[in-house]
Design a protein that fits this description.
Elements (H helix, E strand, L loop, with lengths): L8 E10 L3 E8 L6 E7 L2 H16 L7 E7 L2 E7 L10 H12 L6 E2 L4 E3 L2 E3 L3 E2 L2 H19 L6 H14 L8 E3 L8 E4 L2 E4 L5 E3 L1 H10 L6 H10 L7 H20 L4 H9 L3
Helix pairs in contact: 2-6, 3-4, 3-7, 5-7, 7-8
């Protein structure tokens, strides 16, 4: 939903985060919105629209996330405008609150994949509907990222990696799993703890495997304990006892994303994950 700039007066702007995208706290005057909102600068209109739709989907399913208000076009830039949750009291029991937020997120789907292409970070992430996990994982996740890496001039033994992934899928019977709605880009920077809740932001939605989210959290430091991981997977009737063995498998995709965005510095981490499932 596009917001009308003529009906919104920005009184004050403060940059509060800077990674791939800049995020601002705006104090505004408007009959449409609260006095304080969060505005995330997004380079392309379709990226902003997709993120708005994804956040709205989470919000309408009662998943803890900032309420999305719409997209504002200002100074030749697109901003996703969201509920401000930064002035609230910080959540104290982060482990428990994140567990509760993720349990609200993981809802059973009828298929693997998603009906719309979206983005992972700044990269396009193709989606389609699949009947099996292996089709979804290899065709919509691994192969497209390998193609980007090859186009960037970085050499990886793609056939060997695909063989390792296919063998791991068979070994862990992942094709017998059920698809769940997942965040898809769940690292610590996409969780805001506030007002006694863990709010999820920047989703890259699909119907995938919850272990993908939990393993990605482990890459850069997770506030989710091993006990809460077990409780989530046990609640979903997944094999919680052997999840630790599969963490390197799930981390291959986000590490491929990092190689595609940031370059060769992430190759050693990718190789370590790769070897961890042979």
């Amino acid at each position: 939903m596009m917001l009308d700039l003529s009906k919104i007066l920005i009184l004050n702007e403060k940059k509060i985060a800077e990674s791939l995208f800049s995020i601002y706290l705006w104090k505004i005057q408007s009959e449409l919105l609260p006095q304080y909102v969060i505005a995330k600068q997004i380079p392309k209109k379709n990226m902003a629209e997709l993120e708005y739709e994804s956040l709205l989907q989470l919000y309408e399913h009662n998943v803890s996330c900032p309420k999305p208000y719409g997209i504002l076009y200002k100074d030749s830039k697109y901003f996703l405008v969201m509920e401000s949750i930064l002035e609230s009291k910080t959540a104290t029991d982060r482990d428990q609150q994140l567990k509760l937020s993720l349990l609200k997120l993981y809802q059973v789907g009828k298929y693997w994949g998603y009906t719309k292409d979206n983005f992972i970070g700044s990269l396009p992430q193709p989606n389609s509907i699949y009947n099996t996990f292996s089709e979804y994982w290899i065709e919509s996740r691994i192969k497209p990222m390998l193609n980007i890496i090859r186009e960037n001039g970085i050499n990886i033994n793609q056939n060997q990696l695909l063989s390792v992934i296919e063998n791991a899928i068979e070994r862990w019977n992942l094709n017998t799993s059920k698809p769940y709605l997942i965040h898809g880009d769940l690292w610590s920077g996409n969780i805001i703890y506030s007002n006694s809740k863990a709010f999820l932001i920047d989703p890259s939605l699909s119907y995938g495997h919850p272990e993908q989210d939990l393993a990605m959290l482990e890459l850069f430091g997770s506030s989710l304990s091993a006990n809460s991981q077990f409780e989530i997977l046990h609640h979903l009737k997944l094999n919680a006892d052997t999840f630790k063995d599969r963490i390197p498998f799930w981390q291959i995709y986000p590490l491929l994303v990092h190689v595609a965005i940031f370059g060769r510095n992430y190759l050693p981490s990718l190789t370590k994950a790769w070897k961890g499932i042979i």
